[in-house]
Amino acid sequence: MNLYLRYFDNEVLVHSVEEALDFLCSIPNIQVTPDLEDDIRNYASSDVFYPKRYKIRPRVYFIVIKTEAATMADFKQKKALRPMVENTVRKENPAVMHLNEEREGWYEGELNFKRVVLIPSSGKHEYRDTHFVVQCKAISGWDCYNRIVDYLKERVDGRSQFPSAKGKNFSFKYLGMWK
Questions:
Q1: What are the C-alpha distances in Å from 98 to residues 22, 106, 173?
Q2: Which residues contact 83 (CB under 8 A, 6 or more apart)?
Q3: Confidence bin at 81 (pLDDT 50/70/90)
Q4: d(CA 65, CA 37)
Q5: Is pLDDT of 7 > 60?
Q6: Same domain, yes or no: 74 and 109
Q7: Are residues 7 and 64 in the same domain?
């Protein structure tokens, strides 16, 4: 496993922790302490593959990234990307995959949104989570979402916030063909 290190415009791809520490020692602004050395060694030997950021002073960092790239060119061209492990792959919302699928008929759409409401006792406004369910005629899940949002925008405070159609706060299901 190789390590890519970067501090501003100084960058290097090394094949061992010792080479990484030599690179860091060559930069005058970075003070290599025994704790920093131990942390880099632990990071290099661990199973963790996310980039590691080390603070030098406020808003100044250097990064260390584990890579399987053999050369800097391979690293820059992302030729040594690790394949995603099945359990770390983000689960796609199955409804999102069918959002644009055109299928005329009745849809049931559910939307959770932030509705602005007036508090009578104080005269101020606040956001309230609101669950809205409707059955409507639509051409697709996307059309169903747009019809719901258009309907609500005419009836609630303009400062209300609506979620993305691709997010977890909107869902729909096809009920059948209209007659």
A1: 53, 15, 10
A2: none
A3: low
A4: 15
A5: yes
A6: no
A7: yes
Residue 141 CB coordination number (10 Å): 25
Among candidate residues 23, 19, 24, the one with its CA nearest the CA of residue 36: 24
Distance CA 24, CA 44 (A): 15
Q: Which of 91, 135, 89, 130 is nearest to 113 (CA)?
A: 130
88-113 confidence digits (pLDDT tens): 444 555 666 778 888 899 999 999 99
Among 25, 57, 88, which residue terminates a domain? 88
**Is the torsion defined by CA of 64, 70, 76, 81 positive or negative?**
negative
Query: 26 and 43: one domain?
Result: yes
Average pLDDT over residues 59-83: 82
Domain count, the chain: 2
Tokens of 64: 């260390």
Given a contact cutoff of 8 angstroms between Cβ atoms, the answer to whether 141 and 98 are in contact is yes
Q: What is the pLDDT of residue 96?
A: 65
Q: Pick from 88, 113, 142: which residue ends a domain? A: 88
Question: How much is the average pLDDT of 144-150?
Answer: 93
Tell me the C-alpha distance between 172 and 149, whole Å.
Answer: 13
One domain, residues 102 and 160 = yes
For 126, how many CA atoms within 13 A lie in the half-sphere containing its CB?
Answer: 7
